Amino acid sequence: MNDAPITLPSSPGWPGDGVHRVPYWVYTDPDTYRRELDRFYYAGHWCYIGLEAEIPHPGDFRRSVVGERSVIMVRTQDGGVRVLENVCAHRGAQFCRERQGNRKEFVCPYHQWAYDLEGKLRGIPYRRGIRQDGQLNGGMPADFQMEGRGLTSLKVAVRGGVVFASFDHSLESFEDYLGPTILSYFDRVFDGRKLKVLGYNRQRIPGNWKLMQENIKDPYHPGLLHSWFVTFGLWRADSKTSLKMDPHKRHAAMIGVRSVGKPAGDVVSGVTSYKADMSLRDPRQLDIVPEEWWKGPTAVMLTLFPSLIIQQQVNSLSMRHIQPRGPGVFDFVWTHFAFEDDSDEMIQRRLLQANLFGPSGYVSADDGEVIEFSQMGFQEKPDQQCLLEMGGHDSEEATNIASETLIRGMYEYWRRVMGV
Amino acid sequence: MNQALEAQAYTELLQLYAEYTAAIDAGDWDRWPEFFTEDCVYKLQPRENHERGLPLATLHFHSKGMLQDRVYGIRETLFHDPYYQRHVVSLPRVLAVDRGRWFLEANYAVFRTKLGEISTVFNVGRYLDEVVRVDGALKFASRFCIYDSEMIPNAIIYPI
Ligand code: FES
Ligand SMILES: [Fe+2]
To answer: What Pfam families does the record tag this protein with (chain A) (predicted)?
Structure first.
């Protein structure tokens, strides 16, 4: 773990002992944000990079990010996956500008230093100098070693076709990092079936990156904010729910079984987003067909700290990559996928249900909006506090939607790592 | 311009484009589905997906009914910060005319203005359209909004 010197936060400090109050400055303070990058994104944690299906052939590459750092995910000649930092070893140029492609080697445009797909330095123009009047002049010193001068290569974990990486080579295994419970929900989706990328959505959300983790650790809001969830029973107070965490409480699973039929009065009384007489003119958008591999739950939303949300909500599947860009803004990149053995009908169904998600989605567009509103409130009063008391003050696992236990669990972990 | 396309028909197409833009900039959502055929396709899609043949779209509607469902969503279910939108649309370029179907392309830029804020460039791209005549009136059989903008500024709620 990173042991950068602890600087006193320019903020009033943590209120009390617990995590049922979270001060606004955790979302706005620039020093806190820098330390979060160092401790969560650049050390001690596996970060999401992409899907193996995005780079099927040797030489295929696709750019991604770890925190704010640009990296390249590449398929090597022997079929392995490497993740290399996109920073030239010579003078730091972020040399790879394409989003993706296929290369035999990477060449920096500035002075044409060449790297192989493993990131090893293979060529330096005029390394031995320039011949002038029968003499070699200039060039690198005779004792210069190319060995060990390559691109920064990250530690890589691939499981079920999903690629994670870390700058921290002393990191525990990906399996240990997730812990058995969360790993079992990860494996439920990524059980070895080949994946098929359906496409991308990108949005820039003016809020702190943690707010997106919290949004998907918050089962309290979907049945209130999202009419489609409450009206069509996808996620609401009478849905069978369980809230699970890893032993460190950094990752979580929100597991739900959709409610069918009309809700009882107390489930929706006073819930203005419930529209009793709403029906779709074209019901194909919610043509839900249960799949065997769900094994019961109709939705499992996984938050893998710090950088990833894995969505299975009925037939729609996506990886949502959190890419922080400062204390008050992050990019949110969605990769929707299917399985290679899906029928055409199933792929069409997944694509139509994607209308619920993403920057325009019926149950997602408004999440970005409310995150922006929260951030606006935080910026005005950094010493004010969020109230997180739904379901009590502790962070035990729970089985109902009126609970903020997963967010409290995340802040227990956050406080430990951040030393506040 | 394609010789098969008479000036008269082109003027009518311009009318369709102008009315569509006016309706969605005025927030006249009920009019929006009426510019389309019953079994229309409407897509709002990032350029990367379009160019690489990846089928995912930001919005993907397969019928006028789905457009009407979207209108209900804008009005009743999608919580959002209100904003004005203003489209600037180029003259449509005729790509082909085939048995009464016009295939067209037009550039667009959408500006967004939130209450109390300055106006910003919101979404930039091009329309790829297929226009047919139904009962005498021109309608979009399909309208694909393929956008260059690499990042959506938080959310797109209203139709492009
Ligand atoms: S900075 Fe890359 S070769 Fe010089
Ligand atoms: Fe939500």
So the answer is: Rieske, Ring_hydroxyl_A
The answer to whether the beta carbons of residues A86 and A70 sit under 8 Å apart is yes
Q: Whose CA is nearest to atom 3 of ligand 1?
A: A111
Q: For residues A257 and A390, state if they share a domain.
A: yes
Tokens (6 digits) for A191? 């059980």
Q: Looking at the domain assignment, is residue B154 inside a domain? A: no
pTM of the model: 0.95
Distance from CA of B36 to the nearest CA of A (A): 15
Ligand 1 pocket at CB < 6 A: A 88, 90-91, 93, 95, 108, 110-111, 113
User: What three-state secondary structure class fits B27?
Assistant: coil
User: Which residues on B lie below 8 Å from A203 (Cβ)?
Assistant: 151-155
A204 and B60: CB-CB below 8 Å? no
Considering every ligand atom, which ligand is closest to the CA of A95?
1
Q: What is the pLDDT of residues A152-194, one digit of tens each?
A: 999 999 999 999 999 999 999 999 999 999 999 999 999 999 9
pLDDT per position as a tens digit, A332-369 = 999 999 999 999 999 999 999 999 999 999 999 999 99
